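#onboarding

Welcome to the new folks! Below is a worked example of what a typical request in this channel looks like: someone posts a single protein sequence, and someone else replies with the predicted structure as tokens. Don't worry about understanding the tokens yet, we'll cover that in week two.

Example request:
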Amino acid sequence: AKLVWDESCKQNLATYLLKPEVKALGKAAVVGRVTTARTVMQYAAENQIADDAAVLLIVSDDGQITELAKFADIEVYLAKVPRGLPAEAQKEIERLQAMPLEQRWAFWSAEMSRCIKCYACRAACPMCYCARCITDVNQPQWIPVATDPLGNLEWNIVRAMHLAGRCVDCGSCSDACPQGIRLDLLNRVLAQEVLTSFGGEPGYSTRKEYALSTFKPDDKEEFIR
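Example response:
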């Protein structure tokens, strides 16, 4: 038997590294792409994984395999990888951001109206690892359980906010969504906002630079009036 690795192998398998049942088995090996390595580094920054707790087999676009385990080695590897979005993805963001505010709101409202609250995005996302998600809290009830326009919007806005500055752009959320909602696009828009306003990109080092949990004296404060 042979393992096949091609363009259809999209799932970010680093998601399983934080599962108790996987941890119980000991040191794991994970096959993945650059975003898999970024996930492990972000886990390290958030104190979710120990150094050398897993072996990464990173497959490049040309099929080369690099074996990594130590955080320092992963950081060196990622430093050599080109950053930034593909040209077409960047143009898509620019087209969206160029829309008037009302048109953008209509676009996202239409996207989120298709949500059926199956939480496949949450299950697939490596950064959604809370022991108890806000959607499961019922005292108080933060987000309506039923599938309705307001509840759908609230769920997706809260999730996007929790991922702002943490998303490693693996695309697992949109790949898992049965409704084809452009969650990847929303995360990319917020990632650019965080990069522009606060600097730093998640998943490239073990330094904690999550925009919503760190403070710098030189942070922009234009929102304070």
